Amino acid sequence: MVNVSIARRYARALLDVASEAGRTEAVAEQLTAFAQVFAKSPELTDVLLNPAYSRSQRTQVVEGVMKALPGGADPILASTLRLLVDRSRLNYLTDIARLFGDMADARAGRVRGHVTTATPLQADALARIQQQLQQLTQRNVILETRVDPSILGGVSAQVGSILYDGSIRTQLEQMRRELKEH
């Protein structure tokens, strides 16, 4: 099991350095991209985590992936990744990326949310939903959309830990429960 407190310390330190340099967004984007490459490739994961590979081999792989990032890795991120290799902490990379994003959002007054609809939303409808959620939460809301035909219609939105469920499926289930009670 991965110790999240270790990942949190690395994420906080990286965020502090990136914030001081004014490059939080760039570092967040590249860190997420690097973690996704890492998570999607079992071969890469094996090389980076398997003790059969030497530290220099792992360093070469990390350097190669950093060069493959669009525009190359930000120097702040590159230093952090090298430190993770040196300290054999690459197994924390996914958690560091997730926690870094959460902390960066919190510092910027942002919160991420998900909107689920039965059919794809038009841009103006999504903008109205985003505006309503911003008024409800008093924070800048960044939304990801999902399409799930099983909700039948309406909108279900989750912002942080709060769920706003206006889906037809939920309304029908609620009516069914009420009818059973009577």
List the helices and strands and how they pair.
Layout (H helix, E strand, L loop, with lengths): L3 H18 L2 H17 L1 H8 L5 H14 L6 H12 L6 H16 L1 E8 L5 H15 L2 E8 L6 E6 L2 E6 H14 L1
Parallel strand pairs: 1-2
Antiparallel strand pairs: 1-3, 3-4
Helix pairs in contact: 1-6, 2-6, 3-4, 4-5
Would you give an account of this structure?
By secondary structure, this protein is α+β, with helices and mostly antiparallel strands. It folds into two domains: 4-106, Peroxidase, domain 1; 110-181, Glutaredoxin. Helix content is 63%, strand content 15%. The protein has helices spanning 4-21, 24-40, 42-49, 55-68, 75-86, 93-108, 123-137, 168-181; strands at residues 110-117, 140-147, 154-159, 162-167. A hairpin with a 2-residue loop joins strand 3 and strand 4 (162-167). Helix 1 (4-21) packs across helix 6 (93-108), helix 3 (42-49) crosses helix 4 (55-68) and helix 4 packs antiparallel against helix 5. It starts with a helix and ends with a helix.
